[in-house]
């Protein structure tokens, strides 16, 4: 065997070992990719289920929000009505307060007139009895 043939034999053995290691690496890589593909498929199916449940939940929440919006609007209108009624009661109360002051003055005037009449009538009655 010559040196050239020996070099060719060493190169052929090295190339064979390289092909074997690459083959083993590719087999392991294929198994890893298969496992990874199955995991991704499982996650995709789970993700679809989660998205489906999220959509159902979102529709439910939107329906309840519409119901709640009507309730909130009704409470807001009720609050405005109560506020308007409160303002009206303040105005009526102010009017009655002013009327009360006038009534007190009128009552005092009426009481003084009645007292004056009563005194005059009382003073006139004994005078009539003495004449009769």
From TrEMBL:
User: Could you confirm whether the keyword Membrane appears in this record?
Assistant: yes
Q: Which Pfam families match?
A: DUF948 (PF06103)
The membrane spanning regions, by residue number, are 6-27
Signal peptide (from-to): none
Q: Does the keyword Cytoplasm apply?
A: no
Report residue spans for region: Disordered: 112-132
Kindly state which keywords UniProt assigns to this record, in alphabetical order: Membrane, Transmembrane, Transmembrane helix
Give the matching PANTHER family. Answer: UPF0478 PROTEIN YTXG
- Recorded protein name is Contains an MCP-like domain
Q: Which organism is it from?
A: Eupransor demetentiae
């Amino acid at each position: 065997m010559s040196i050239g043939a020996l070099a060719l034999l060493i190169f052929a053995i090295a190339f064979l070992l390289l092909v074997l290691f690459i083959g083993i690496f590719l087999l392991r890589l294929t198994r890893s990719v298969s496992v990874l593909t199955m995991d991704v498929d499982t996650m995709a199916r789970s993700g679809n289920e989660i998205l489906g449940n999220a959509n159902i939940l979102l529709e439910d929440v939107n329906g309840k929000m519409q119901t709640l919006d009507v309730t909130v609007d009704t409470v807001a209108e009720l609050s405005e009505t109560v506020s308007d009624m409160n303002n009206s009661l303040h105005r009526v109360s102010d009017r009655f307060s002013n009327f009360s002051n006038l009534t007190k003055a009128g009552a005092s005037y009426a009481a003084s007139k009645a007292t004056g009449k009563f005194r005059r009538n009382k003073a006139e009655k004994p005078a009539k009895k003495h004449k009769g």
